[in-house]
Amino acid sequence: MGYLIGVTALWAFSFSLIGVYLAGQVDSYFAVLLRVTLAMLVFLPFLRPGLLRGKQRLALMGLGAIQLGVMYTFFYQSFLLLSVPEVLLFTIFTPIYIALLDDLLFGRFTPIYLVTALLAVVGAGVIRYDGVDSGFWAGFLVVQGANLCFALGQVGYRRLAAGLPPTLAWHNVFGWFFIGAMVVALPAYLLFGNSAALPTTSLQWGVLAWLGLVASGVGYFAWNQGATKVDAGTLAIMNNALVPAGLIVNLVIWNRDADIPRLLLGAVIMAASLWLNHWWCQRRQVAVS
User: Fold this and answer.
1) Which GO terms describe its cellular component (predicted)?
2) pLDDT tens across 203-221, in order?
3) Which residue in 2, 239, 244, 270 has the most C-beta neighbors within 10 A?
4) 87-114 pLDDT, tens per residue?
5) Residues 6+ apart with CB under 8 A from 176
6) What does the alpha-carbon distance between residue 59 and residue 47 come to, in Å, rounded to a whole number?
7) 242-254 and 260-288 are packed helices; what angle lies between their axes, rounded to 10 degrees?
8) What angle, rounded to 10 degrees, do the helices at 94-105 and 111-128 form?
């Protein structure tokens, strides 16, 4: 849980940095490519290919390609079809996908996870709903593609980790994750990138360096490690904890307007979903023992 809370705080700052210094100024495909490249360089020195078999390496690369490469391709395209509030609103469905995919991959059905995930969606919706325009269905589907990729990457990582030795040094194999993401990010930039919209200031380069080395490199490693240490219900709920965290950071540092009563109400609803999930897990442990 500590991993997820820490990365939530980290990514809350990152989203504001993107919105203030990069969005509409730096080519999105280049930003993704540089983030993936820098993150990959963080882990390449630690890479020990012999720790994983061929299929396991390919599985980890596939998860990186989906969770990072394909997800970002969908996500950045959504801004061409939707307003920013609509994109933020439609990302709140990720917990539902996590709850359903986790049960599917682990061969079970846990209704309480779906209930708490839906409650987390309600909480995030209370915070972020600002109304939608009429012709938004194409954009809605693109965002759901991003949500599914992010959810599948997390759940797939949990499933892969469950079949590997608990003593595995993940920092010695996580480079494969970013290599997989590079397989998608590089062709995407070569095909769709705009070389005329590269960073022009040292501040933009600095923001990209931070996003690549820390937010992507450290962030995705810690988040996926955290995903293996909690139950699916907690993971699903934490995917929407970024909404209130991001708004708080934006309000405090960049003084952007935020509806404080809605922010508090949504946060309370999501906290209630976490409490309900924790209560159910404790009750299940008592019943088993």
Assistant:
1) plasma membrane
2) 999 999 999 999 999 999 9
3) 239
4) 666 777 788 888 888 888 777 777 776 7
5) 47, 52, 57, 60, 61, 64
6) 16
7) 150
8) 160
Dist. CA 274–CA 204, nearest whole Å: 37
C-alpha to C-alpha distance for 130 and 273, rounded to whole angstroms: 23
Six-digit token pair at 264?
A: 């508090």
* Measured distance CA(159)–CA(153) in Å, rounded: 10
Tokens standing for residue 67: 């969770």
Residue 50 identity: G
Number of domains within the chain: 1
